[in-house]
Design a protein that fits this description.
With about 210 residues, this protein is an alpha/beta fold. The protein is about 35% helix and about 15% strand.
């Protein structure tokens, strides 16, 4: 991924600057960690420096939209507890390997604890990279339990050829706004990279179609 000192500074200044709408879910959600199994488990990895464990946008909006379609009692929303640090963007693969392994372990735990559940995974920006790096290392059996993977503002879209390696493209949706340069293999942050909440319903509709 190409980057410069100016790009780093711009990334740092903009990740928390956009006006973001937080809906009912809030920026932290632990319904899988703290609750019983539900028919659907939705993991979301937030973007760099976002608050909580799902961030302000588009995680809460995505979870709310999926719950609206499948029933709130049927969907366990769960954030991914990784650092989401600025430095993580510059690691090989766009996210720290240790945190990708931890996310993969979280998905494995869901598949073991709730063998009948369908699992959805999602991520925004660096969180999208984390989805790539975690899902690609899952076993074939666990991948079969992942019904859909959706990414927003995906920093690894170009690098991975518009797909998540070793994962079914029919179960993958990569959402990038026109003009979002991170989807083109750089860390150049433009206004197009901020506020993906209007596209959360698109991601939710895809997940619901795979339910």
């Amino acid at each position: 991924m190409k980057f410069s000192a100016a790009a780093v500074a711009l990334l740092a200044s903009t990740v928390a600057a956009a006006p973001l709408e937080v809906r009912a879910t809030g920026t932290t959600i632990n319904e899988f960690d703290n609750g019983a199994c539900r028919p659907y488990i939705l993991f979301h990895a937030r973007g760099t420096s976002q608050a909580g464990n799902v961030g302000q946008d588009p995680g809460p909006q995505l979870i709310d939209a999926v719950k609206a379609s499948l029933g709130a009692a049927n969907v366990a929303g769960q954030g991914v507890p990784y650092s989401a640090s600025l430095a993580g963007n510059f690691q090989t693969g766009g996210a720290p390997a240790s945190e990708a392994r931890a996310f993969a372990a979280q998905i494995n735990a869901a598949a073991t604890k709730c063998p009948n559940a369908k699992i959805f995974v999602a991520g925004y920006s660096q969180g999208a990279a984390l989805v790539h790096r975690a899902v690609e290392q899952l076993s074939t059996a666990v991948k079969a339990k992942v019904a859909a993977a959706v990414t927003f503002g995906d920093t690894q879209k170009k690098q991975d050829g518009g797909r998540i390696p070793n994962f079914d493209t029919a179960k993958t949706l990569i959402i990038c706004r026109t003009g979002d340069k991170v989807c083109e293999g750089t860390l150049t942050i433009t206004s197009a990279h901020q506020d993906y909440s209007p596209l959360a319903p698109q991601g939710a509709a895809f997940m619901v179609s795979k339910a």
